[in-house]
Structure prediction request, 682 residues.
Amino acid sequence: MFKFKFFIVTFIFVSFLIITSVIKNQSRVLEKKIYNLKTQVKLKEKNLSETQLDFYYLTSSSEVEKKFTKNKLQEFEPIKYSKIYFNLTDFTTIKKKLTSLKDLHEEKK
Amino acid sequence: MKKKNRKNNQINQSSFYFEDYLETNKKSQIIKKKNNFQDRIYLLFFIFFSLILIFSFKIINVSLSKKEISNLSKQNSNFSLLRRDIVDRKGIIISRNINTFHAGINPKLVNDKENFLIKLRLIFPDLPVKEIKQKLSGDKYFRIKTRIDQNEKQKLWSLGEKAIKFEPFQARMYTHGDLFSHIIGQVDYDNYGISGIEKYYDRELKDKKLKNKPLQLTLDSNIQFIVNKELKNAVKIFNATGAAALLMDVTNGDIISLVSLPNFNINQRETITEEKYINKITKGVYELGSIFKTFTVALALENKLVDVDTIIKNIPKKIKCSIYEITDIKDHPRNLTVEEILVRSSNVGSVILAQQIGENIIKDFINITGLIKSPSIELEEVGAPHKLNWNKCKLETISFGHGITTTPLQATTLYASISNGGNLIVPSLIKDREKTVGKRIISIETSKKLTNILRKVVSSEKGTASLADKEGYNIGGKTGTAEGYGKNKHRINSFISIFPSNKPNYTLFVMLENPKINKDLIYNYRGIKTKAPYNTSGWNSVFVAGKIIEKIGPILAINNEEFLNQHVVEKIN
Prediction:
């Protein structure tokens, strides 16, 4: 009786031990994979961060102006009169009303 | 058979004691054998159990410790940025930390020093060779170059020299160079803010909980660029020693642009001690001159002492105050309305109004608006206006902006408060902030009257700011020509504008320091080609402000009603 109990306990203990070690090994493999993925994400984040910085530098007004001047294009400046509408209603109301003086002159002719 | 059994019985029963002895002996032998067997099992069990215990302890130990992983994660944690980003109102990055390296050398590990030096020189031709040669002959570790980029690191790496060490380091990068130098400030090599926003918000910028949330400013990069460009041009055209501009939203105090020239590239850390590099908008303290006349008229109207069209009769050419004589630069008619006093910028007229208002009302106004206190803004670099000594002529001189100093930021804020309907606003550089409703300093009625007068300063024939009358933007404002306060008497030509004056949205302050007349510059003054007759703000600061508004107007999406009314007619059908 004693022997039987002893072997049962030992068997359970050993089997749990083996299962634990297997699970542990698997979890370590997973941890390594997670770590590798995290590393990749961090590298991508780093690249993205630096690319964003480059983007904002290269598209800053002063850099754009430099490129315009270098390529002998016209002076870089915003449109002279405001043609920006605050909303669609504003836009449609004005567009409905709109007839340029040029059109009127053409009608007169 | 019987015989045999008997024999056996005889042998066995030879002696009772002997028989007993034999039995006992056999039993003890069996027990002994049995005990030996049990001992061996126990020993085996003990050994086996000990092994299990050792393994289980090892497994527990291994599972609890994450030494390897934590070490690896430490190696990779360098990307964790030490400071948050700073972005403009549209989310454009103004400053961000990047990973970089310092390159150092351990001379003990260099085998062929001469050869190594040649290789180094090939990569970095500007390196001080003599100095490095001297250091290489010693034993101490030293840095050859700080803040190297990836390419430089790669080149050094390719030398295959084990003596070269790369120290990881985080550098702060400013994408716009000198554009925001006076606002953003700088950080030291340990990533501590040492000036500007970087210093004021040092703790918040290093807060790890907010790591992914950038600090958003009210500034607009594109508008800042235009203002900066126009001011730089103005410095060249008028040969000025410096210039400054401030654009503010009158409804909430958002600062959209703040430029102070000369500025400096904040990517290159230098110790700047020269006074000309101060932030003229927040730290510069000036006598702003005629700009104060608007406040005098505002108080006279608010206290119902006069109305816009009240005629002040018999205005003398000069008023004597103590030993000083207060005069006007130009000759004005003897009778002027209150509106004309401001439009023509009459010093004597302002003095008469101030005398009617009285010292107490003006004192209260100065206290409520905090004009002579340090300005409230999210920067460390703020000026302290000089204390007012209410001597004999103080009331009179204050009425036209002399004998009182303030910062351009405070003067612009007050103009914004006057034009927004009379609510005192608090200027700010931070977009996400608690917005408080300010005290009322003047009534809506007075505010409307004043904006109308300010519009006439620009639009009317007698006004002093005609050059800023840009079609479609309804610009109003007031000029100020004065001298700097202190030992060095600088000439300060300034102009504060509000636009569009029919429904004020923005206020723009433009200041030129020591401008000169440009003899080659031809102005289009009300359709007439002319050269500048005086070195007053009307001929330089106003000219610059007009140019700026013309360019930033479309970006600010101001509905150009004047343009539409003039060039667009309604279709009948």
Q: What stands out?
A: The domain at 81-216 of chain B is CATH 3.90.1310.10 (Penicillin-binding protein 2a (Domain 2)). The longest strand of chain B covers residues 93-105.
